[in-house]
Amino acid sequence: MSLKEAEQELVEVVGRKYVLSSRTDLALYECDAETLDLALPDLVVLPASTDEVSSVVKIANKYKIPITPRGAGTGLSGGATTVTGGISLPLTRMTRILSIDPDEMTAHVEPGVTNIGVSRAVHKHGLYFAPDPSSQVASTIGGNLAENAGGAHTLKYGMTTRHVLGLRMVLSDGSIATFGGPWRSSIGLDLTGVVVGSEGTLGVVTEVWLRLTPEAQSVETMLAYFPDLESGGDAVSRIIAAGIIPAAMEMIDRLSLTCVEQSLHLGLNLDAGALLIVEVDGPRAGIEIQRKEVERIVFEKNALEVKWAHDAKERASIWKARKSAFGALGRIAPNAYVLDGVIPRSRLKEAIQEIAQIGAKYKLPISNIYHAGDGNLHPALLYHRDDDDEVRAVLLAAKEILEMCVNLGGTLSGEHGIGIEKLAEMPFAFTEEELNAMRSLRACFDPDGLCNPGKLVPAPKTCGESGMRPLLRHRLSAC
Q1: Host H or E run for residue 201
Q2: What would you measure as the largest C-alpha separation in the chain, in angstroms?
Q3: Cα 430 vs. chain centroid, distance in angstroms?
Q4: In CATH, what number does 329-475 get?
Q5: Nearest of 157, 108, 117, 112 to residue 137 by alpha carbon
């Protein structure tokens, strides 16, 4: 009864068109790009402004209905999946760029603006938004902020948190708070930094002030082939050791390379065991020196072939090979479980070898795609979701890979977040005292636990946790 009453009040706020409750409509919001975990929301509400979000949250608080904020649904950790039901709150109608200040190099935007949309809007000023996840054409600023997204150019330019100056957020009681603003302040607690990466568990962000980056004078992009991943990994470590900080260093293995070539026919070398992309940018005066040094190092580390992009079109073709890799894996299996562990660059070779051993142990094909420059691994475990044995193998293999990352001196996530996917693995990286501190912070913002419950920080019981919808991972007892 309370859900029906809430629905009527929500219709008064956003209109009948923007409150969805039919099973067909709800099914469109049952997961994000992490498709193993499915859970239907009870309602989907699409607000168009900060005031509407505030009113929606007040109604949810009144009836104690959980709220799960949602961007474009490109996340890979189940962060937008309504694992306790309640309201799915897509912010995709909030797409305004509120202001651009080219002199201060800032933009004030709503959370539904796409990542690439910001860069396109400020390009005429010689600026862009530096974080560039592979999903940047579709992923939204709100989602980037929630997961602290990175991308290929994180190595030089840093994660989303480095590019957020302030934000406006609706708290769990419907009140509106502003942290930071159009300029960086060192006064008081850095609550902006607390919210970035909190995966919607502290409130609903409705406006963001972004730091923009000047476009580089010169960009040089290299594609190099290696006989194996280990040789490519050695080259990555050697380039950094030489004092060069490329804008990006990305690597894909033979399986991924083959799928991309068969899908897109880019003329890639199918005899190679690994493909490495290195991009250097900056003032024209220093780029030629960096280019020569990078080329010398990759040949020293047994590169089979090196190609440099001659123009923007060739550069786009090289990046297409990397950014299309996950989609191309559909040629092998209909489902991919994409991990997001981080290891020290110096231990990349060990990680590559151990992932191969884990894949063999569980008889799973694993595609390896790396933000190699900052040690961010994206092994994609390929499987069929309707095969329980394969799903169980995927979950067990994923757990071992994440534990390996922590044991090598790394951590559980570089940019995809924890969501539901890595919830059970959080004790690998944090003590119970540290997790309790996170729970206490979360309770300060959201005392009733209504903001994206069941995500990021595990409750004392994670499997079949009270109030959670039944998930496939729980049924197969993998956590």
Answers
A1: none
A2: 70
A3: 21
A4: 3.30.70.2740
A5: 117
Domain ranges of the chain: 1-215, 218-311, 329-475
The whole-angstrom separation of Cα 374 and Cα 361 is: 27
pLDDT in tens, 301-360: 999 999 999 999 999 999 999 989 999 999 999 999 999 999 998 898 899 999 999 999
> Is the distance from CB of 107 to CB of 129 less than 8 angstroms?
yes
Instruction: Report yes or no: 297 and 304 within 8 Å, Cβ to Cβ.
Output: no
Query: Token digits for 370?
Result: 């790396």
Q: Which residue from 68, 113, 81, 80 is spatially nearest to 94, judged by alpha carbons?
A: 113
Two structure tokens written together for 258: 């083959």
Return the pLDDT at 97.
98
Query: What whole-number distance in Å separates Cα of residue 168 and Cα of residue 182?
Result: 11
Kindly report the CATH class assigned to 1-215: alpha beta
Whether 80 contacts 88, CB under 8 Å: yes
Task: Mark out the alpha helices in 33-128 (DSSP H runs).
Answer: 50-63, 115-122
Q: pTM value?
A: 0.94
- The arrangement of secondary structure in 218-311, i.e. its CATH architecture, is 2-Layer Sandwich (3.30)
Separation of alpha carbons 322 and 162, rounded Å: 24
Q: At 250, which amino acid appears?
A: E
**Do the Cβ atoms of 307 and 222 come closer than 8 Å?**
yes
Residues in the chain: 479
| Distance from C-alpha of 117 to C-alpha of 95, rounded to nearest angstrom | 9
pLDDT of residue 346: 86
Spatial CA neighbour of 367 closest among 259, 234, 237, 248: 259
**Rounded to whole angstroms, how far apart are CA atoms 231 and 268?**
18
- DSSP conformation class of 20: E
Q: Do domains 218-311 and 329-475 have the same CATH topology?
A: yes
Which of 11, 44, 6 has its CA nearest to residue 25?
Answer: 44
SS3 state of residue 470: coil
Spatial separation of the C-alpha atoms in residues 126 and 169, rounded to whole Å = 30
Beta-strand ranges (E) seen in 261-316 are: 274-282, 305-308
User: Side chain identity at 112, as an amino acid letter?
Assistant: G
- Could you read off the pLDDT of 258-286 as tens digits, one per residue? 999 999 999 999 999 999 999 999 998 88
**Cβ distance 347 to 409 under 8 Å?**
yes
Strands 376-383 and 335-338: antiparallel
Q: How many CB atoms lie within 10 A of CB 398?
A: 25
* Pair of tokens at residue 380: 């994609």
